[in-house]
Design goal:
The protein is an alpha+beta fold. The protein has one domain. Helix content is 57%, strand content 18%. The protein has a 3-stranded antiparallel beta sheet, with helices on one face. The longest helix is centred in the first third of the chain and has 32 residues.
């Protein structure tokens, strides 16, 4: 019986550590995902939409499908960056 109790207590401590690390990972995950925008195109073939590009306006990085217009995606990315920069200036946030 004592062995099972110790094993259970050890398992509980292990689960608590895993829970704590998962909560920390969620915070890191939110920070990692900040700045990303997904471009979704709707068409007759895809009435629910299809992701055709992934933009990160903070890093000015894009990943796009071959059928997506690269110039449009880059202009969109720069436009988002400019808009966010202007809003930060208005609010006084650096």
């Amino acid at each position: 019986m004592q062995y099972q109790e110790k094993k259970t207590n050890s398992a509980l401590r292990s689960n608590n550590k895993q829970t704590e690390s998962k909560e920390g990972e969620d915070d890191d995950k939110e920070d990692d995902e900040e700045g990303f925008v997904t471009l979704i195109r709707f068409s007759e073939e895809n009435p629910t939409g299809r992701a055709t590009a992934l933009l990160n306006w903070k890093l000015l990085m894009v990943e796009l499908m071959p059928e997506e217009d690269a110039v449009f995606v880059l202009l969109l990315c720069v436009s988002i960056l400019e808009s966010v920069s202007e809003m930060r200036k208005m609010w006084g946030v650096c």
